[in-house]
Automatic annotation (TrEMBL), chain A:
UniProt KW keywords: Transferase
GO biological process, alphabetically ordered: carbohydrate metabolic process; fatty acid biosynthetic process; malonyl-CoA biosynthetic process
Single GO MF descriptor: carboxy-lyase activity
The protein's name: Malonate decarboxylase beta subunit
PROSITE patterns for this protein: COA_CT_NTER
Taxonomic lineage of the native organism: Bacteria, Pseudomonadati, Pseudomonadota, Alphaproteobacteria, Rhodospirillales
One Pfam family cited in the UniProt record for this chain: Carboxyl_trans
Domain CoA carboxyltransferase N-terminal, chain residue ranges per copy: 1-252
InterPro entries cross-referenced by the UniProt entry: AcCoA_carboxyl_beta, ClpP/crotonase-like_dom_sf, COA_CT_N, Malonate_beta
Entry-linked Gene3D superfamilies: 2-enoyl-CoA Hydratase, Chain A, domain 1
TrEMBL record, chain B:
Molecular function as annotated in GO: transferase activity
Protein name: Malonate decarboxylase alpha subunit
SUPFAM superfamilies listed in its UniProt record: NagB/RpiA/CoA transferase-like
Source species of the chain: Nitrospirillum amazonense
Membrane spanning residue stretches: none
Lineage: Bacteria, Pseudomonadati, Pseudomonadota, Alphaproteobacteria, Rhodospirillales
Pfam family, one: Mal_decarbox_Al
NCBIfam families: mdcA
């Protein structure tokens, strides 16, 4: 439900900057992220571009298929935006959902306009498996093409459903990523790991473990993301602006640096079993204290000890 | 001449048999199975301690490993059937008959075993009712209990999760039974004596704490806006007009929402100090913000809650704590308090029928009762007046002689018209009746009887059943808040409108509540982390509830 404050039509800045990003809907996040009144939606719910597959399974459909795409402005600068709705089928990517994002990225390349993606997804929608997998490939290709044309593609990671599966692969292709403590980024989700490898390998119900392995603080410490922000709509707006200030470069040197970074990560941390062990190797003095640290304490330590990814983006 | 001490001699024989395995009172953990085989006799009445929270898990595992050729046909009399071993012993024949109270996590398996005839069921009780029977006709011959620590004499420290232990020990030990305790450690001096050594016969060192389930932790992040609306209705439509100061809350998300709305919505209504001051309640983490903002004067607890220990230790004015500083809970006393000294019980349920009977039995599951039917019933033995109790009595019987009129406890069922998995909360026929047919039970497992229920709250409004004058009015009042369920759609619209004019039914707008105001922004805490912060870091949430 959109809050009354979010609907304030002409406010220059979000009316309640402390609202939780994690708690907001896709539309709520967009209304707080963008300059007030600047958003115009493409293929909005009134067009009723419904999933052609879900009805076969007797599952409810949504008029926007769980993603909101359109154009808006961030501090006066025009951007294209996509926001996934984690509350509809866990933000899972189906045929229409994927096509909307692909189209947006194609437009970004042609218009030379930066893109901000508000991730909130468990990955491919299982009921639309093949169409969903194809959509992921198309989105990745469109992302890389847009970036090759000099467009920035910024990912914001702080949604309830996290950013998993194919969604995490798309995030990995972004020019910059912004995450909150609540954000999660991982290819395989906790339940998938437990199902395939057993509860001894990974207890998906141990939420603290989930956050130590996939959560925002961990991803920031190992250089999997570029910016760490508080879980507020204002902090994500500021984070998006900062991420859009970063260079859009995607060339051979960047890819080589990324490859070297990942090889180094594997060599350094490949045998660890828990986030706390990784943080200890990074040189964090009291690794078990990391989850309870507040934002300022965490950033002080993290910015001193973390693995940077700057050269690799 | 009659022997007047057969029970005492029986216990002495068991003590002698057990001593072969013990140094003083201390039994080594690796001898535990053989020890149990030595002190137990076929057909014994045994209380294996465990409820919806704490578990004598080491003793349960050891009992399950006993040789059914030696130990068989036990009659288990215990609060909770919760661990797999609690049912394993019925499969192997170690146990045959069962009297219990709660079986939440084993509700499906226990039902299958009852259908299959592997369990001979005595009865499903409320906690207080089962405790009562420990002193009358179900006195255990052996009790297997759990404590935090023991000294060498056998004095026990049961800690914040004292719960059922004093009651079980009282009945067993003074009834000439044998008390065997598992403890997490043996210490020189226990922090406080919860159970005196002369009531404890053997102690086994498990070298780890007994298992405790964090059953009462509700994550604010999972509370929906519909639940917030029902909470607003309850606060403004019930807590405020009746002035409910002494109460018990159930375990569900609707009541968690009420706890989280007190410092916001409740404060705005000017209710602080006027409602929700005295509680019979487990230490719900969601009550922390209300405690911190000065709403709560005192709480007595059935049990503890994992992670709340340090917080309660730091709030001794609010909680009952011992000389060591930690919480002392006591399920029997708190249940009694909930029955006699509270003016309101409010809790969620899964099914309500047209007479207002409610049940948590669905689809062949036997979850038992726990304490809710005791809290959620009128105490016919109550004699002290209070404003809410007298007012409820007057609403039920406006023409009665005031000085001879019983008051009524407010027994409120709260929930959404469609619950989990879109299952309707309102039904023509309770699932409990099918279960009773299938198991040939004399009584269907009804959680709260219709004649005890005074109000039903849904997102559609509040039905005040005290104001209903006959069966038809009750039925239409219930249908009137049943929304778009089949039961709701079959309502008599004209009669429901008349009931609304008489305020038997009150819609959100009748109470000046706009459903669109039911926003998560009203919750004083949005996450478990918010609760931890509100406690000043004293609340330590278990790992499974942390999303950081």
């Amino acid at each position: 439900m959109t809050s009354p404050t979010a609907a304030a039509p002409h406010a220059p800045l979000p009316a309640d900057p402390h609202r939780s990003w994690y708690e907001e809907s896709a539309r709520g996040r967009l209304s707080h992220l963008l300059d007030a009144g600047s958003f115009s939606e493409f293929l909005g719910p009134q067009r009723r571009e419904l999933s052609p597959h879900l009805a076969l399974f007797n599952l409810p459909r949504q008029f926007d298929d769980g993603i909101v795409v359109g154009a808006g402005a961030l501090a006066g600068k025009p951007v294209l935006v996509a926001a996934q709705e984690g509350r509809f089928m866990g933000g899972a990517i189906g045929e229409v959902h994927g096509a909307k994002l692909t189209g947006l990225l194609h437009a970004a390349r042609q218009m030379k306009r930066d893109v901000v993606i508000l991730f909130d997804t468990g990955g491919v929608r299982l009921q639309e498996a093949n169409a969903g997998e194809l959509a992921i490939s198309e989105i990745i290709r469109a992302t890389v093409q847009a970036r090759a044309a000099g467009v920035r593609v910024v990912g914001l990671l702080g949604g309830r459903a996290g950013c998993y599966g194919g969604g995490s692969l798309i995030a990995g292709c972004c020019s910059a990523l912004v995450i909150s403590e609540q954000g999660r980024l991982s290819v395989s989700g906790p339940e998938v790991i437990e199902t395939n490898k057993g509860v001894e390998e990974f207890d998906s119900k141990d939420r603290a473990l989930v956050w130590r392995t996939m959560g925002g603080k961990h991803r920031y410490l190992i250089g999997g993301v570029d910016l760490f922000v508080a879980d507020t709509v204002a902090a994500f707006r500021a984070g998006a602006l900062a991420a859009l200030d970063r260079p859009p470069t995607l060339d051979q040197a960047v890819l080589a640096a990324e490859q070297a970074r990942l090889e180094r990560r594997l060599a350094r941390f490949g045998d660890t079993a828990d986030g706390t062990e990784v943080w200890a190797r990074l040189g964090v003095n009291q690794p078990t204290d990391v989850p309870d640290m507040d934002l300022d304490d965490f950033l002080t330590i993290a910015n001193r000890q973390r693995e940077g990814a700057d050269a690799a983006r | 001449m009659r022997d007047w001490n057969t029970k005492g001699r029986d216990r002495q024989a068991r003590l002698d048999a057990g001593r072969h395995f013990a140094a003083g009172k201390i039994v080594a953990a690796h001898d535990l199975v053989a020890f149990l085989e030595a002190v137990l006799r076929p057909g014994d009445r045994v209380c294996l301690e465990g409820d919806n929270q704490k578990q004598a898990d080491l003793l349960a595992k050891a009992l399950a490993k006993a040789d059914p050729a030696k130990i068989h046909d036990l009659h288990m009399v215990q609060s909770g059937v919760v661990l797999p071993e609690h049912l394993d012993i019925f499969e192997t024949g170690i146990a045959r008959r069962l009297d219990f109270s709660y079986s939440g996590p084993q509700s499906a398996r226990i039902a299958r075993m009852m259908f299959g005839g592997q369990i001979e069921l005595g009865a499903v009780h409320t906690y207080l009712e089962l405790f009562a029977r420990y002193f009358i006709d179900l006195t255990p011959q052996v009790a297997l209990i759990a404590a935090v620590s023991a000294d060498k004499d056998g004095n026990l420290y049961t800690g914040p999760n004292t719960e059922d232990t004093p009651t079980v020990v009282e009945a067993t030990s003074f009834g000439k039974g044998l008390v065997i305790a598992q403890v997490g450690e043996i210490v020189d001096r226990v922090p406080r004596v919860d159970i005196p050594a002369d009531q404890v016969h053997f102690v086994v060192n498990a070298q780890r704490p007994f298992y405790v389930e964090p059953l009462f932790t509700r994550d604010p992040a999972a509370i929906t806006e519909t639940q917030i609306l029902t909470a607003m209705l309850a606060i403004k439509g019930l807590y405020a007009p009746y002035g409910v100061r002494r109460l018990n809350h159930g375990i569900g998300f609707n009541t968690a929402a009420i706890e989280l709305l007190l410092p916001t919505f409740g404060e705005r209504l000017g209710l602080k100090g006027k409602v929700c001051t005295h509680w019979a309640l487990n230490p719900h983490p969601t009550l922390i913000p209300a405690i911190e903002s000065g709403w709560v004067e005192q709480i007595h607890c059935f049990g503890s809650e994992v992670g709340m220990e340090d917080y309660m230790r730091a709030r001794p004015d609010i909680f009952f704590t011992g000389p060591d500083g930690s919480l002392r809970s006591n399920r029997a006393f708190c249940q009694t308090a909930g029955l006699y000294a509270c003016d309101m019980f409010i809790g969620s349920t899964l099914q309500i029928d047209l007479a207002g009977n409610s049940s948590t039995v669905t689809g062949g599951r036997v979850a038992g009762f726990g304490g809710a039917p005791n809290m959620g019933s009128d105490a016919r033995g109550r004699r002290h007046p209070s404003a809410p109790w007298l007012r409820a009595g007057e609403e039920a019987d406006p023409d009665g002689t005031p000085a001879l009129r019983r008051g009524r406890k407010l027994v409120v069922q709260i929930g959404e018209t469609f619950g989990d998995g879109n299952a309707p909360m309102f039904v023509e026929r309770l699932g409990a009746l099918e279960l009773a047919d299938k198991l040939h039970l004399d009584l269907a497992p009804v959680m709260v009887y219709g004649d005890d229920v005074t109000h039903i709250v849904t997102e559609e409004g509040i039905a005040n059943l005290l104001l209903c004058r006959d069966k038809d009015e009750r039925e239409q009042a219930i249908r009137g808040v049943a929304g778009y369920t089949e039961v709701g759609r079959a309502r008599d619209r004209k009669m429901v409108e008349r009931l609304r004019e008489r305020k038997v039914i009150q819609r959100p707008e009748d109470l000046g509540i706009d459903p669109l105001d039911a926003d998560r922004g009203l919750l004083v805490a949005h996450s478990i982390k918010d609760l931890m912060i509100a406690s000043g870091g004293l609340y330590r949430p278990p790992s499974r509830f942390r999303n950081w």
